[in-house]
Amino acid sequence: MDNEQRNANKMAETPVGKLIVTMALPMMLSMMIQALYNIVDSVFIGMLPERAEALQALGYAYPVQMLMVAAGVGTGVGAGALLSKALGMNDGKKADAAAGNGYFLMLCFTLVFAIFGLCVFFGGVYFDICTSNAVVAEYGRRYLGICLIFSLGQFVQLMGERTLCSTGRTNLAMIMQLAGALTNIALDPLFIFVFDMGVTGAAVALLTVGAAFVAPLVFVNASAATHSTARNLILLYAVTAIPRTLGFTQVIGILRSGGDTTFCMVAETITVWAISVPLAMICGLLLHANVYVVYLMSNVCELIKNVVFGLRVRSGKWIRFGASEAREALAAAEEGGTVLVDTSAASEAFDGEESDRPVKEEE
Questions:
Q1: Four-point Cα dihedral 47, 48, 49, 55, nearest 10
Q2: DSSP state letter for 194
């Protein structure tokens, strides 16, 4: 409430000339930073060996991206105008309704563009009528499809920026835009070159902009109680990260690598959906426990999975990948009269069975 009162006083008491300068300059810089996204993508994609086709694909994708920005900015400006008017009238309910309706419209736009993105990504819609070059169409399909399907972050970013400007916090809006731009600049070369994702990496890097914008925005505007709860949840997350990491190591590093994928799928499904999720729902909905208890109950599956996966690793039954090929090689070697390894040891390793057959020496 104090922050709202200070903003209202700022809009009412600050001289008009000073107010225009202090509010307009950050907004101008925000618009300049917004233009950096496509420029940065073009610069890094232009460094790829197939730069001609990739840049052509980005050129075809640009009008659709501008249409998406126009929908977001237009809705944000309209909702921001209603929000500013309501704040000037000291009508908190209308201000909340204006902001809420703005975000709801952003969700509707996200759904529309996501459906179109699915058509682009899987059906090649739009690029089939733009070019006959299959390489250009493929690059554009991947880049634009990903940007449209996961456009929620960008729409929330546009609405958040308009909301901040409507409440007089143009400096904060500029900082959030700068955070998103710097994140995009840092991640573009990482995804494009280091992870060797090419044009797809540029689209993935662009998706992080919304998260980089929204995360600080939510934290800055949160109450003291929210800050305290967030700190405690981060601490709990750090504690539960220990069994989670051990579980990842056993599942991804050992069991799945050995080909024991079916067991992993069944075990993870049962521990999560039959144990942790019901426990969390019971604690939250029936027992009305606090958020910390609900969070811990949702992570009970990590402890159970560690026990289950640990026993599976010790049993040796997880080795599936390559076992049949090894047996065939051993059988062929025995028929040829040459055996360089102990077949009983191989059998024990693959099946957990023991054998007393002696080792044959090379003839």
A1: -90
A2: I
What digits encode the pLDDT tens for the residues 194-224?
888 888 888 888 877 666 665 555 555 556 7
- In which residue are the tokens 């009528």 written? 129
pLDDT at residue 115, as a whole number:
93
The residue type found at 335 is E
Residue reference for tokens 């237009």: 74
The rounded radius of gyration (Å) of the Cα atoms in the chain is 29
pTM beyond cutoff 0.85: no
Annotate 193-209 with b (16+ C-beta within 10 A) or e (fewer).
eeeebbbbbbbbbbbbb
User: Rounded to whole angstroms, what are the CA distances from 325 to 192, 254, 284, 332, 349?
Assistant: 37, 19, 51, 11, 14
CA distance 87 to 120: 41
Where are the alpha helices (H) located in 167-288, listed in sequence order? 170-189, 199-220, 224-248, 261-269, 277-281
Could you please report the per-residue DSSP string of 256-309?
TTTT-HHHHHHHHHIIIIIIIHHHHHIIIIIS---HHHHHHHHTHHHHHHHHHH
Closest to 131 in 3D by CA, of 38, 52, 42: 52
Residues 122-174: tens digit of each pLDDT: 988 899 899 999 999 999 999 999 999 988 888 888 888 888 888 877 887 78
Dihedral angle sign, alpha carbons of residues 266, 269, 272, 275: negative
pLDDT in tens, 90-135: 888 888 888 889 889 998 999 999 999 999 999 888 998 999 999 9
Closest CA to 137 of 61, 43, 49, 66: 61
Predicted local distance difference test score (pLDDT) of residue 353: 43
Question: Taking the C-alpha atoms of 130, 134, 136 and 137 in order, what is their torsion angle to the nearest 10 degrees?
Answer: 50
Q: Among 2-6, 197-201, 208-212, 319-323, whose mean pLDDT is lowest?
A: 2-6
